[in-house]
Each structure stands twice: as structure tokens, then as C-alpha cells.
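MODEL INPUT / OUTPUT PAIR
PAIR INDEX: 1
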Amino acid sequence: MRLKNTLLLFALTAGCFQLAAQEPPQSEKTWREKLDSLAAPLDDSDELVERLRNMPNIEVGKGISFEPQDKKYRMTMRFRMQNLLAFDFDKNFSHTDTEARVKRLRLRFDGYIFSPKLLYSIQLGFTPYDAKDLPNGNTNIVRDAMVYYMPNNNLSLGFGQTKIKANRARVNSSSALQFVDRSIVNSEFNLDRDFGFFAEYYRSLANDFNLGLKGSVTLGEGRNWSESNKGGFAYTGRVELYPLGRFKSLGDVAEGDFEREERPKVLIAGAYSFNNNTTRLQGQNGAYIPEGGMRNLHSYFVDFILKYQGFAFYTDFMGRQCDEPLFTGDAQTSIYTGNGLNIQTSYLFPKNWEIALRNSTLFPDKEVQPIVGYKHNNQTTIAVTRYLIGHSLKVQADASFNHRAESVNPMYNRWEFRFQVELGL
């Protein structure tokens, strides 16, 4: 009997995979069709379409969903993984390092409970990259744990832990990138995740002109920090302008023009964050500030996106300021103040091959240049991506060249070659 049940379960599972394989590629489904398929179990699909359109950056329409007959809750379960192979070379093109690992392995649960107005989002990360220990000894398995209340189609209020909505590149999911990973500019200045209160509001002002407002008040020490008896809070606000209308399929939080916008679509956005008396060198990231010190950090971000018929263009400018970036008791440590500029462009061919080019430059302030070890740091990257099922199943490869002006260490790696497979359900 046990063998019979096992064979039956195997047959059902195989059937599910066969049906999934027969689904058309994501690009062949319109956003409305995907939302309508989700809305089918509910009475008012038009209202749900509008509600999901303005959801707080929760990816919908993927994974395996469960909903009881009484419709008291809905849960969508998903997983994703990124398998990475990378090689580094010095200025003489001699091999210096090899990286081979599962970079990201994540499990996610999204849905609503009691009412479609009460949403939740949970995400767990299981690799060392995702779950590295914090300076205070806490672990980082929990990435997102949010409860959202949406009183209407345009407003969402959230409590818990998630990404701070500051710069475009960080808000984009790492599953929706057109390069193997984000830029060096984002790595240095992004605010990452934090715990606190979050709010998002969207409104159509006139014709196709849309406005988005996002804000948060958070602990300021990053995810899973638990408590802070010294510092203040982090206050972040972001304004988004869509002068030509909203992007298809949440295209403002996914790189590349996979939906092939029929008309030009533009996003112009700016954000500012004040982190009061943080105890970490990057605010939500980094090691402890030396000697138990605290600093006020000011971060700023400007984004621009243009998409049209497979072509995409991005510009990210961001930076950080601090009144006292140096430490008298530790001359080898500083808060990285300065700014950075990231420019990238891409084109998606009809067969879902994409080529992308990115140039990223870090400009540290003069007083911290001797500590960070260069006057400026530039990285140029070219990438090729083959999308098999949208961003859910893709193969990526990119090559980067690094150049540091007046580098303290002349033996830094000049070349980097990376290959990655992204698979998500």
C-alpha cells in the first residue's frame, strides 16, 4: 500500500511538472492575463487587479498557491536558487581566484489571511551569502517578514522587516537582474533591509502621469539586529514619477524590457535617508563603528529608467555623507563617504537573448581616499543573458574590467568572468 501511494504521488507530481512545462513563456502572457488568472477565485477581479498592481514590491503570479473553499487565506509558496561560477585575474591576466557556490537559495511565502486587505510576505535565505552572521552575533536566515494592510488599491501600510525603498537597484529583486549581480556602486551605498514601519502610496495625477510615494521609519541597524540601546532610528523617503504611465508587469522593479513596452515608459525618482546615531559603518550594513562610537549618516539617491520595445536604459546616482567619517583611535577604518554613478543599457532580441552594458564608478571623498585605497574605482561590465522562462529560468554570463585610479594596492584584480544559472518557481 505504501509503495502504491508513493507511485501515485510520483505520477501526480510528474503530471504537475508536465502541465507547468506546457505553460507559455512569461513574455507571451499579458500582465492583465496573469492577474486575471490569480483573481479567478475571487468575486471582484477588477478590484484585485488594481490592488495587486500597487502591491508593495511583492512578486505575484509565480509558485504554488493554496486557498481553502472559505477563502479565509491564500498562500503562494516559491523557491529560487542561483548557482555561480566566477574567475578573477590580475593585470598580467594571471588567475588569482575561483568562486564556485550556490550564491542564493531562498524560500518564500506570500499571500493574505482573513481578508485580501491583510497581506504577508516571508522570505528565508539558506546560503552563507544570505545568512552570514551579524557583528552582534545574530544570524541572518530571515530576510523578509512583513505584514501589510491595504485599505484601498493605492495605499499599503507595512510592519516588519524588508528592503528599505531607497534606490532602484536595491529594490529590484536579485532574481530580476540582467547582470550576474548588482553594481559596485549599489554594494557600497545601498540601505539593504531593516525592521520598522513602511508605507507606499500610488496615485494617477493626470492622464498617464503617475506618482509614487514610499517611506519608512526603521531601527537603522539592519535586518535581524533585534535591539539597540544607543542609537536612534532611520528615516527614509522616496518619490517616484511616471510621466508616461506605469510600466507593464512591475517593470520598474525588474531589469531589462522583457515586456517590450509598446510606448516609451520613464521613471524619475529620488530618495533621502537619515540614519540617526547608527552603530555600524554603513548604517544597515558593515562592522561596528570603532570604540563603541555612533554616527549620523545622510544617504541620497537619484534614479532614471527608460524602456521601449526591448531597449532599456538606467542611471543610478547615490552617495553618503557623515560629519565625522574618520576615527582617531583607528586610523585604518572610516565611514565610506562620497558618491557613485551607475549607467547601464540593454537590448532584448526577439528570441529572448539580451546583451547589456554597464559602467559603474565610485568617487570616495578626499579625506577617506587614503583609507579606501584609491581616488576612484571604475568597473565596466558586459553581459549576455538567455531567458528561457522570463527571469524565472535564465542563463547569464558577464565579464568585467576594473580600474582604480591611484590605487594603494597595484595588484588588485583587473578582470572578472562570471557564469550563473537562475531557477525559480
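PAIR INDEX: 2
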Amino acid sequence: MRRKTSIARLFLYPVFFFVVSALCAGCATLSSPGTIPAYSIKGTVYYPLISLCESRGVELKYDTLINTVYLNKDSKRITLRAGDEIILVNDSAMHLDAPVDFHYGTVVVPRQFKEQVFDILFPLSVSAQRKTVKEKIKLKKIIIDPGHGGKDPGAIGKRGLREKDVNLDIAMRLNDLLRAEGVRTVLTRSSDRFIPLPTRVSITNKSDADLFVSLHANANRSRSLNGFEVYYVSPSVSDLKRAHDAARNVPLHLKNSVFARRSQDLESIVWDMIYASNRAESIDLAYSLCRGIGSAVDVSILGVKGARYQVLRGANIPAVLVEVGFVSNPGEERLLRSGAYRQRLAEGILEGLRRYSQDMSLVEVSER
């Protein structure tokens, strides 16, 4: 989550910022959906294992001599050990992206374990799922960019489905969902109009928004290709060049900051740091959107990729471009014609935004 004051603090205290980011373990507590507490440890979201087990009726045994935990329910078994990234799931090894850890004397597990192992082996009952209350999105303002429009139809499916229509419909549905959550939104277009790419970038950079999400539908010569993917600005794009351009053309509006004299070099340094931070946040957002869609829609997740799209290169806030599916694939073209399917896609994107905002809230609290 972006705030102007955080940029000023980044400029005024660069040494402190980098030292703390690199060296401190940073740990904070925040409630997660459903009553299970969540912790941010070194930038990774963790959950207390005992709370997870109690919520699902899973038997937990802990061998203190070898720091090993054994979970068991309905003949399903998990073995894990504090400090290890390797766990055993029904006697098959699995590698986690973060180790099992201790937090205030309690065994905690990374979110990957919860979502990809625990929730699958020991799912919530239907009644428990209905009782789960989701936290509201902790974002103030989001730019929604329906790709193409007007004289630019975008990709066109074999049966005539136009990308520009799919993009706008999902954007309007997402807009309604976000506004219902109290999030302010800006649509780069709300009708079938052609909006030039530089204009979309200008709208974004004048908006004072937290995030930019551009919605598109894909196409490929191979009609068998299908799936959902998210793009962030490519690492090959020069942040330093963008920073120099921004320093010449865009005021920083840093609060509580005092420049002895106006210096393009100093402003370029600040912009370079902002762009580097934006790319990292964009990648986090992209992964959150993939997880959100994966939980809402039965679709192949093609993953997160870098690209040089103009709307991403020009944005001075975290920005992603979402490809909701392939109109060139007969099956996905048929699905994308469905209003019900488009609604599920909008809800999946909403869920991804919710997960991203919760993760960012954990990180912000841990850095205070």
C-alpha cells in the first residue's frame, strides 16, 4: 500500500531504510480472515500451526527432542520440523518456499503450506466456510484500465468475441465490487471509447491511486493455448532512464522534505528508488492476483511474467496487466461470453487484491 509520506521517509532516511530492510527480521501480528492470527516474519506471512489444527480438528503431536511435528486426520499425515523447508505429506517430500519456524515459542507455518497443503488435505466444512468473514480491502484507490476500445477491438475470437467488450464488462463488474468494499476507483474508460496509451498513463499518474490494474484478453496462433496470466514491467526496462525523465517532467510533491536546492540528480535518485519499489510491489500484486483467480475460477494459471507494455512502463505506481484468458481458444472464448464467468473472474481479481492488501498491511506494520 502506497502513501506519499512513505516516499518522503524513503528519501530522508535512505540508509536506515536499506539497513532495516536487509538486516531486520521484522515481525508483526494481524488478524487474518476467520480468527486465525497471521504474522509477518522476514516478509513472509505465517500462521500458528496449533490454531490451524484446532480450526480443522487435526491431531497434532510434537516431539520436543527432534523438534518434529506430526499431523494426522482421516489417514492423512503431514510431518514437518522447525527450521526445515522440506515436509512430508503422506510420506512424499515437498519443498516449501519458506521454512517452518518458531514465533514466541509456537510453531508457525508459511502461507504456502496453509494454502497448498493444509487447506487441501484438511478443508473447512461447508458450514465453517460460510461463517468465515473476509476482511475488507485495505486500499484507498485503484485505477481499472479496460484495454482497447472504440476503433481498437483488440483480439477477436473465431466466433466474433471482441476483446474490448470482455475487458470493459469485467472492469465494470470489478468496479462495482470494489466500490461495495469502500474502495475508490478510476476507470480509464467506462464505455466503448478509444483511449490512447499515453492518455491512460497520464490518468494513472495524476490519480494519486494505490495500484493500476489493466484488464485484457489474450490471443495466440495456437488455439489450444489457454489460461490466466499477469504481467509486470520487465526488468529490462531501465528504471534509471525513467527516473531521469520523471525528474525533468513530474513533480515529486514530497511531504515533510526540504531540498537545499532543486537538484535533478537528487530527484532522479528518489524516482529510481520509487520505480524499483514499484516493480517489487507489482510482482507481489501479480502473484496475489494469480492466487485469487485460482481460488475462484477453474482455470489454468500460466503465472507471472515481465513485459515492456507502455501502460506499465509509464506508471509511477505499482502496475500490472492481467490477461483473463484466450479468445483464440474455443473453450475459453465460450466461457468469456458468459456473464456468470466474467463475474467469477472479477471476484477472483477482487480476492487477489484483498490478499495483496492484507500482505502489505502486515509488512507496513512490521516496518514501524
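PAIR 2 NOTE: DSSP finds twelve helices and 16 strands in the chain.
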